[in-house]
């Protein structure tokens, strides 16, 4: 019965009472496009552009090479949203030509947007390539920066996008607690937010995402993380802007319902998770998701939050 329900799960993501939550794919490059289309992704919510930079970590790929790769992705999603994240180098993804050699704490050092602001020519080339790749295509291009900490970061990124003549929505990832706490201020500079719950958990709990011994603190059901999600969606709602999730949290079907109840406007995940999330979300009303979200936030631990949400949703 469950397999049949999954197979029958097609169409746009929505609660049973029709509240739409677009289900988007996380991709790492053109090679992931087919699976995303196959899963019925309504677009791309996170295009991790790092893959292009990994062949040769001593220098950035040429603008031409970037245009080609971006175009291959953009062409696959006509009339759809494609959210491209500019290069997120450093910490768990070091690049020789960008990442400082000897930082005591790479996760707290020059990474993500910080690397790009230190190397503005790398950002300018990437934005120019994106701009050219999207030319003439009927795609809704959105471009976001990783590791935005505050309004100053968001402002610098938005300025770089304007300088590149980019015709795209400009957004900020919320992966640093300060950006969630002051989301309204970040939103003065950008048009949308996207919660990167993997890094947001890492920085909220001071728990390295690569260290198994602290994995308990990386659990996206942690109520403190849910509080930061709520702060972000409330700010976005107040500004009339969108706030999606593109971290691993979105791929847990029950948590996807809770995130919807917290006001998240889209969910982006690995393509393989889309059918299951779509089927689960379609079983509950928005009001049920909201009650599950409130119950989860009222809990004290991740396990209790999970159990409380399950109880509200009568999850099987
Ligand atoms: C995240 O941090 O949640 C995220 C989506 O980005 P990445 O996993 O690539 O750091
Ligand atoms: Mg991240």
From TrEMBL:
Its main location: cytoplasm. It catalyses: L-histidyl-[protein] + phosphoenolpyruvate = N(pros)-phospho-L-histidyl-[protein] + pyruvate. Keywords: Cytoplasm, Kinase, Magnesium, Metal-binding, Phosphotransferase system, Sugar transport, Transferase, Transport. Its cofactor is Mg(2+). Mg(2+) binds at residues 175, 199. Its EC number is 2.7.3.9. The active site is at residue 246. It is an enzyme of class 2 (transferase). GO terms for cellular component: cytoplasm. One of its GO terms (molecular function) is kinase activity. Phosphoenolpyruvate binds at residues 48, 85, 198-199, 209. Residues 11-282 form the PEP-utilising enzyme C-terminal domain. One of its GO terms (biological process) is phosphoenolpyruvate-dependent sugar phosphotransferase system. It is found in: Cytoplasm. General (non sugar-specific) component of the phosphoenolpyruvate-dependent sugar phosphotransferase system (sugar PTS). This major carbohydrate active-transport system catalyzes the phosphorylation of incoming sugar substrates concomitantly with their translocation across the cell membrane. Enzyme I transfers the phosphoryl group from phosphoenolpyruvate (PEP) to the phosphoryl carrier protein (HPr). Belongs to the PEP-utilizing enzyme family. This is Phosphoenolpyruvate-protein phosphotransferase. It comes from Streptomyces sulfonofaciens. The gene is ptsI. The chain holds residues 241 to 556 of 556 of the full protein.
């Amino acid at each position: 019965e469950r397999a049949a329900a999954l197979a029958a799960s097609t169409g746009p993501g929505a609660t049973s009472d029709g509240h739409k939550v677009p289900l988007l794919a996380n991709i790492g490059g053109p090679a992931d496009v087919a699976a995303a289309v196959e899963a019925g992704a309504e677009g791309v919510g996170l295009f991790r552009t790092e893959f292009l930079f990994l062949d040769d970590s001593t220098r950035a790929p040429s603008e031409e090479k970037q245009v080609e790769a971006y175009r291959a992705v953009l062409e696959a999603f006509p009339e759809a949203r494609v959210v491209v994240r500019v290069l997120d180098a450093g910490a768990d993804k070091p690049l020789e030509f960008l990442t400082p050699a000897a930082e005591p704490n790479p996760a707290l050092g020059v990474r993500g947007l910080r690397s790009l602001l230190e190397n503005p020519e790398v950002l300018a080339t990437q934005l120019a390539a994106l701009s050219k790749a999207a030319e003439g295509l009927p795609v809704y291009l959105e471009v976001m920066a990783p590791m935005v900490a505050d309004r100053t970061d968001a402002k610098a990124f938005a300025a770089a996008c304007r300088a590149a003549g980019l015709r795209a929505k400009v957004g900020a990832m919320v992966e640093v607690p300060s950006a969630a706490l002051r989301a309204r201020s970040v939103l003065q500079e950008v048009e949308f937010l996207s919660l990167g719950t993997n890094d947001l958990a890492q920085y909220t709990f001071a728990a390295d995402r690569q260290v198994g011994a602290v994995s308990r603190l990386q659990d996206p059901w942690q109520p403190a993380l849910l509080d930061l999600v709520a702060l972000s969606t409330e700010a976005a709602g107040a500004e009339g802007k969108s706030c999606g999730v593109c971290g691993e949290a979105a791929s847990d079907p029950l948590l996807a319902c809770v995130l919807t109840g917290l006001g998240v406007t889209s969910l982006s995940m690995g393509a393989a998770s889309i059918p299951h999330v779509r089927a689960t979300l379609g079983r509950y009303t928005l009001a049920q998701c909201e009650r599950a979200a409130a119950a989860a936030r009222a809990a004290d631990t991740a396990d209790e939050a999970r159990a409380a949400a399950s109880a509200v949703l009568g999850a099987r």
